[in-house]
Structure formats: C-alpha cells, structure tokens
Amino acid sequence: MSDRTIPAPAPGGRPLSALPKAHLHLHMEAALTPQRTARVAAAGGIVLTTVDLERDFSTFARAYLELVQLFGAHESLRMLFDEIADEAVADGVRYVELGVSPAFYAEPYGSSDAAMEAMIAAGEAATARTGVVFGMMVTVDRTLPLEAALADAALAAGFAGRGVVSLGLANDERGHPAGVFAEAFSLAKAAGLKSTPHGGELEGPESVVECLDLLGADRVQHGVRAVEDAALLVRLAASAVALDVCPTSNVLLGVAPDLAAHPLPALLDAGVRVTLNADDPHFFGVSLLDEYELCRTALGLSDATLAGIAAESIRQSALPPAEREAVLAEIAGWLASDPEEIPHV
Ligand SMILES: [Zn+2]
C-alpha cells in the first residue's frame, strides 16, 4: 500500500534521532552543516565565500572545490571527522560511508596515499571517541580522463580492508557517461570493493542502466530518475542494488521541482531498495536527521517505512555482520515501541 494515501502522522511519532541508521551518500568536503563547517574554517583562519546555488549543478561544483582548501592540514582534517562523528551521534547514525578524494590533497600531504592514510587515521580517532564507524568511498571525478580514475581505483584497491570500502563516481553526469570508467570499477571490484557510482541524477534512467551493466553497481548514488523507466524499476526491485537517495539535494539542484513531487514514494511503491542521505549538508543546510524528518512531514512516510529505509541503510553498510544484526534488532525495537513512551531527545 502506498504511504501517500496515509495522512502525515500526528506530532508525537517515534523520535527519529533514536532510529539507528547508516549514512551512505555524503561527500567529505561538504559533510557538515554550515555552522559546523564555519567552526572548522575559523579554526584554520579561512573565510568562506557565500554561495547561491541557483538550482544549478555547475555553480555547485565550482563552490565545492573552494572547500578543498579547508582540509589540507592534519589538524583541520581531524576536526572535520570529529564534527562529522558528533553530527552522526546527534542524528542516530552508526556508520558513515564518506566520499573522499585523496588526489585533491596529494600536495599538502605529500602524496594521494599519504592523504588517504591521514583521512583513515582521522576517522579511526573519531570512531574511538564516539563509536561511529567510518568506511571510505574513494571517489572518481568523471570529468577527468580515465587515467585519473585508474589511479584512484589502484589507490582504493591498495586500501581495501584497511578503511576503504567502495569506489564512487561523482561530478557532472552530462557528457561524462559512466561506461568510460568500466576498467577502473572492474579493478576495484576485483579488490573486493563495492561499486557505488552516481547516476540517474542529471541524466535519465539510461545512466542508471549504464551503472548497473558497465560498472557492476552495488548501489547507485541518487538514481532517482530510474522512476522514468518502468522496466528499470522492475529490474531494480528484483535486485540487491539500493539507490542512495537525497531528496533535499534533488530539489535544490533542480532534479525534482519540490519535495512533494520527489520520486521517493514512487520508488518505494515499486519495491526498490532505497536509503536516505544528505549528500552535501554544507550547501543544502540539512542533516540526515532533517532528511528523515522531512520525509515524515512533507512526504507523509510512516514510522514503519522510515524504519524500513533505516534497516536497508544498515544492510547496505560495511558494518561487520554481527553488528549489522544487532543494529537491525534495535531498529525493530524502535518500531515495536509505543511512540508515546519514548522520551524525546
Ligand atoms: Zn552526491
């Protein structure tokens, strides 16, 4: 049955901060809400310019690169991971799969490998303090030549089992089809990494098909335009592939006209596995908890549906199997509880 036929739940639903979840689509440089980014920038003596996204991906991509200047020092990198972990704790997030681009930082850290080591160390320190687990997604820039992607894939493969869990593919889809990078993704998969490219955001369903057929995608970041192809929805529903959906990002970058018209409910109705994510909180101003709240209030998703999405995020995470099972049991407990009896935090 569709959640869209159910009126929005009354205030007093189960507190979503207490719903355990994983965050699987989050880019490192823009991972913090603006207030948290400002703290890191101030500590490093850097003044950030204000950005007007104008619902335009190109403006967004340029603004994103400005943030790279922030994290070229060990101290600011550690502070970034601490802030990400603190936000995760506040949002009920147990696992963060973070999109990272070590090649951006080859110069300040001495090499891409050294930058990767620094990111993993910063993540491990934050885990020791908070319990939030990090998995790194080395991200290929699809606007660069294949050689750069092969270097990223080789680096990621070298860190497989040592902090890196997946190979991503980001930046502007238009004119940069996924298939060009098949060799890089095949190398990563051979090393045991997941394939987690962006697709079906700025291009249509054919871009999702390409991620599945040519990159062996385990998850597709965004993927929402799969909704335009009924056969693709059937294929996704029958598969183990999840779409890592980011509703606010889609609205602010013009992929969906507004939240009420977002394809998430249609994807759920079709039986597609979806997870909920914040993508770039620095630019979009929302945390993952905010996204869950918005799905409850603007899309009318029930607690059962939201718990199902959270459970899918945990199943798709790289947490050890025993830990996944324990968290899934906690999610079931959250749903089984009486919403009136859980104290709001
Ligand atoms: Zn993204």
Verbal overview:
By secondary structure, the protein is of the alpha/beta class. The protein has one domain: TIM Barrel (Alpha-Beta Barrel), CATH 3.20.20. The protein is 46% helix and 14% strand. The chain is built from 15 helices and eight strands. The chain has helices spanning 34-43, 57-66, 74-91, 106-109, 112-130, 146-158, 182-190, 205-215, 230-237, 247-252, 264-269, 281-284, 288-297, 303-315, 321-336, and strands at 21-27, 93-100, 133-141, 164-170, 194-199, 219-222, 242-245, 273-276. The protein has an eight-stranded parallel β-sheet, sandwiched between helices. Strand 3, helix 6 (146-158) and strand 4 (164-170) form a beta-alpha-beta unit. Helix 1 packs antiparallel against helix 3 (74-91), helix 3 (74-91) crosses helix 5 and helix 14 (303-315) packs antiparallel against helix 15. The longest helix has 19 residues, at 112-130. The two termini are 31 Å apart. The model is unreliable at 1-11 (pLDDT under 50). Bound molecules: zinc ion. Zinc ion (ZN) binds at residues 25, 27, 170, 198, 221, 279.
At a glance:
This protein has a single domain, classed as TIM Barrel (Alpha-Beta Barrel), CATH 3.20.20.140. Helix content is 46%, strand content 14%. It contains 15 helices and eight strands.
Instruction: Look at the helices and sheets and give the structural class.
Output: alpha/beta
Contiguous runs where pLDDT drops below 50 for at least 5 residues: 1-11
Bound small molecules, by name, code or SMILES, are: zinc ion
Order of helices and strands: EHHHEHHEHEHEHEHEHHEHHHH
> What strand line-up does the widest sheet have?
1-2-3-4-5-6-7-8
Overall residue-averaged pLDDT value: 92
The CATH class, by name, is Alpha Beta
- Tell me the overall shape: globular
- Rounded to the nearest angstrom, the distance between the terminal CA atoms is 31 Å
